[in-house]
Write a structure and sequence with these properties.
The protein contains six helices and two strands, in the order αααααββα. With about 160 residues, the chain is mainly α. β1 and β2 form a beta hairpin. α1 crosses α3 and α3 packs antiparallel against α4.
């Protein structure tokens, strides 16, 4: 490849590396901590990581027959140091983040729930329900027989001719 094309591709890799490292940092370190962090730390560490990534790529392209040179090892060590520094800055931001404004009087807080023992079988549940509910009152209405649970006045109004 021509030298001009390689430089163009390395510049493009630098721009992509900025986005990749920023996305990686926000996924691993947490977006909330990254939002609270001083912008200078983010700017410097992201540019350093992107620059070291491009430097490592360029070194690996130039040392193709040997595969890995001393300079490539230095770029890799620098990249690891930048990642450790980013972790330390993120941890420091996490330690010093402001407290939430919760004063404890939230009306939607945890509420007490009444617990019920599960039934052994549906038949046992029906038996308990029938035996625990009071028997409905039986009322006698003239001429209509025995009705269960209906008051005589309601029955009389419902059967009255219109």
């Amino acid at each position: 490849m021509s030298d001009r094309l390689i430089r163009t591709l390395l510049a493009l890799e630098f721009l992509v590396a900025i986005e990749v490292w920023l996305t990686f940092w926000s996924e691993v370190g947490g977006q909330n901590d990254l939002d609270l962090m001083f912008w200078g730390w983010k700017f410097g560490l992201i540019l350093a990581a992107a620059g070291l990534t491009v430097g490592l790529t360029a070194e690996l392209l130039s040392a193709a027959p040997r595969r890995f040179s001393r300079r490539a090892g230095i770029y890799t060590a620098g990249l690891i140091l930048v990642m450790l520094a980013a972790g330390a800055v993120t941890y420091n931001t996490w330690l010093n983040e402001p407290q939430d404004d919760d004063s404890g009087d939230d009306s939607n807080a945890v509420q007490a729930t009444r617990l019920y023992r599960p039934e052994a079988s549906p038949r046992e549940a029906r038996r308990r329900h029938i035996s625990s509910s009071p028997a409905p009152a039986k009322t006698k209405v003239a001429g209509s027989g025995v009705k269960t649970g209906v008051a005589a006045s309601e029955l009389a109004t419902s059967q009255a001719p219109s």
